[in-house]
Amino acid sequence: MAERAGGRWQLGVPVIVASHRAPVQFRREGGRRIARRGAGGLVTALLGLVREIPDAVWVCAASTEEDAAVVAEHRGKAIPIAVGPLPRIADPDAHDEPVAAIRMVEIDPAAREDFYSVISNPMLWFVQHGLYDLTRAPNIDEVEHEAFEHGYVAVNRAFADTIAEEVESRGGRALVMLHDYHFYLVAAMVRERCPDVVLSHFVHIPWPGPDAWRVLPPHMRDQIFAGLLGNDIVAFHTERFARNFLLCAQELLGLPINLDKMTVQYGPRTIAAKTYPISIDVDALEEVARSKAVRTRLDDLETWLAAEGGKLIVRVDRTDPSKNIVRGFLAFERLLDDHPELVGKVRFLAFLQPSRLDVPEYVEYIGRIGSVVARINAKYTRGGEAPIDLRLHEDFLTAVAAYSICDVVMVNSIADGMNLVAKEAVCVSRRNAVLALSENTGAYEELGAFAVTLYPFDIQQQADALYIALMMPEEERRERLEAAAEIVRANNVTKWLDFQLTDLAEFTGLWSWKPTRSS
Fold first, then answer.
1. 231 — alpha (psi -120 to 50), left (phi > 0) or beta?
2. Which residues of the chain fall short of a pLDDT of 50?
3. How far is CA 511 from CA 187, 391, 504, 518, in A?
4. Whole-angstrom Cα distance, residue 359 to residue 190?
5. Parallel, antiparallel, or unpaired: how do β-strands 311-318 and 408-411 relate?
6. Alpha helix ranges (H) inside 381-492
7. Which residues contact 182 (CB under 8 A, 6 or more apart)?
8. How far is CA 506 from CA 13, 223, 384, 491, 501, in A?
9. Which Pfam families does the record associate with it (predicted)?
10. CB neighbours of 230 closer than 8 A, spacing ≥ 6?
């Protein structure tokens, strides 16, 4: 019987993980090869799986010229990566460091542009986050149809072929775990070539109801659904997203579904829609929060708060329209309009990482953010101190420092698959921060009862909620924070993976699996 023993998963079946984002990226700096770990909670979670399962391999995209050079050096085969704090190609003679096998897929640049910048972003992203103004966009014509066939389909085929090679090299019997919206077609392609494979696909972004998908022509959406129905399990962060998926299969494809069992029948096969809310590596985050680097960054923030008797609102996001950043700043402006006694006493610190600058909608959104911030700062700057401190770059260490001493963390997304900022903040706060959380985030299902709710399109309500959060009594702040942090610590990334492996074992019967749920 397979089990998790000694901190390692023992499945008795090979595992192949696939995502567009790589756990490591190679670049040339000063003539030297530099390896940098991929960002995000998904990378952390999947690295924990791949490095702890014998013969597991992670299939991902080669996204830089140096990635391609590394692929060539390894003749297209899996690359052993030492996945410590400073990732690097593993020394074959070293046996005392965790190693993950990484298989990078090279993609034709033109196909990659169509796959990523025309179809995946913005089209699929905008459909699934409800971002289109349908009176104006999308305008789907020959460009988008060509991009779907020669970009999205072609890249999915390249990944499916690579995954199938890995499955066949392991005797044709393996567990394949696909991730996110880039690879909706892969499962059906792999199953056609490897019929004995077990397939799961985790969708990390929202899954809307049937009407949202009618934006896409049937030629596109039918292939997307047929591809996903090649899996044994399709997984989501929330029950709402899983239910929406089944309703789409029923309404758009005419398939029989069972909402009690959360399944859909596709020909002779039964596919389950499951819910597994992803979490964070709490221990690693707390170690960062205790580090000297974060302590140094705390000094300036604490000096300002102590000198002014001030309060601090923090947000950490990518400059993605789905994050609702502009309305968040408008709500802060309304807060100052309604409560002039807070002017000069409340500061809004925003860490915004520019994102997808090859997509016009994202470039335009950054311009709107800058314009709104400049206007609010001109209106409310007092004594040379601007109320909004906007930092347009990634600075994780300073963000962690800000989490630890802020009064309010604002997450007002239009739509979000999960939002790990909310989970990070409640675990490292030392000032009993109040979480101001959009009801449209996946995190709301777990943490909403202990947050101040934000309705993302209602600016007045958001302003009022920020005021409630800032003025909340200390005891209530502490109780809410402790309850939220307890949930995040209990539902850690190990448990997230355990539940998936358990359900896959039970649903497919391919292998036996007994997790250690207390790990």
1. beta
2. 1-2, 6, 513, 515-519
3. 19, 49, 9, 21
4. 31
5. parallel
6. 396-405, 420-428, 444-447, 459-471, 474-490
7. 19, 20, 115, 116, 120, 155
8. 14, 28, 63, 21, 9
9. Glyco_transf_20
10. 186, 187, 188, 189, 190, 191, 192, 199
pLDDT at 86: 72
Amino acid code (one letter) for 274:
K
The residue extents of the domains of the chain are: 13-105, 109-278+493-514, 282-490
109-278+493-514: in CATH 3.50.50.60:
no
Q: Answer whether 178's CB lies under 8 Å from 18's CB.
A: yes
C-alpha closest to that of 367 among 326, 412, 403, 400: 326
Q: Which two tokens stand for residue 442?
A: 């996946």
| Contact partners, residue 79, CB within 8 Å, separation at least 6 | 70, 71, 89, 101, 102, 103, 104
Would you state the pLDDT for residue 506? 82
Query: How many CB atoms within 10 Å of residue 164?
Result: 22
| Separation in Å, CA 23 to CA 120, 161, 325, 395, 407 | 20, 20, 28, 19, 33
Distances (CA, A) of 218 to 3, 78, 111, 310: 43, 37, 22, 55
Instruction: Say how many C-beta atoms besides its own lie within 10 A of residue 386's C-beta.
Output: 16
- Do 47 and 100 touch, CB atoms closer than 8 A? yes
End-to-end CA distance of the chain: 18
DSSP state of 441: B
CB count within 10 Å of CB 404 equals: 23
pLDDT for the residue 299: 81
Architecture of domain 282-490: 3-Layer(aba) Sandwich (3.40)
What does the block give as tokens for 153? 């389909």
**What percentage of the chain's residues is helix, strand, coil (to nearest 5)?**
50, 20, 30
Fold agreement (109-278+493-514, 282-490): yes
Residues 447, 442: Cα–Cα separation, whole Å: 9
What radius of gyration, in Å, describes the C-alpha atoms of the chain? 23
Alpha-carbon distance of 83 to 99, in angstroms, equals 6
| CA–CA dist 169, 138 (Å, integer) | 42
DSSP element (H, E) containing 10: strand 8-10
Cβ neighbours of residue 404 under 8 Å, at least 6 residues apart? 289, 294, 298, 428, 429, 430, 431
